[in-house]
Amino acid sequence: MLAILAEDISDAEVLTQLVRRRRGDDRLPIRKKDYEGCAGICRKGYRDIRLWVSRGIITEIIICHDADRNPPSEIREKVRKAVLRRSGFDGPACIAVPVEAIEAWMIADETAIHRVIPSIRLKGHVRPETIPDPKAWLIRMSRRRNSKPLYVPNNSNPVVAKYLRFDVVAKKCPSFKAFVEWLDNPTPIGT
User: Which helix (H) or strand (E) holds 31?
Assistant: First the structure.
């Protein structure tokens, strides 16, 4: 079984959709855990992994931690040390680091957004990972004259993920490309 550790449940749901689609199994068992922010993943994630491994529950892990204006390599190393090394897990693992946040992956495929919320008319963004705050950008762009935004990330992201075109997002988002490459060939990271 695969485990997904993420900052919030919305990110875990997005990754669940993507994993199941890429692996062609709508019922693939996935254990999801959200930590109410990146600090929680680094503080508590290793304990959950240890517990699940000791019970024979998981064999693969995906940990999702947004870059949040930090170099992705630094985030990957931080998570590797704080979570994977401390857990002792040496099986297939992926540290997915969306730049700047997972909403950049959504922005990369405006067709998927239009499919879920047809009244949103976003123009594509060539390099969504360069947007300083993709979540705020997406909310702002979905707002109609003085109204509430049509795009609500916690609700919209998992639904949009059902329609994301892997090739389109991978061309625009190197962090997504790395994630998909791992899904196709899961390997250990090393602790």
Answer: strand 30-34
pLDDT digits (tens, 9 = 90+) for 90-149: 999 999 999 999 999 999 999 999 999 998 888 879 999 999 999 999 999 998 777 889
For residue 143, the cross-strand partners are 149
Interior angle at CA 66, CA 62 and CA 72, nearest 5: 90
pTM passes above 0.90:
yes
- The angle at the Cα of 80, spanning 86 to 32, to the nearest 5 degrees, equals 80
DSSP 188: B
**DSSP state, 123?**
P
Find, among 115, 159, 105, the residue nearest to 137 by Cα.
105
Separation CA 55–CA 17 (nearest Å) = 25
Distance from C-alpha of 33 to C-alpha of 31, rounded to nearest angstrom: 7
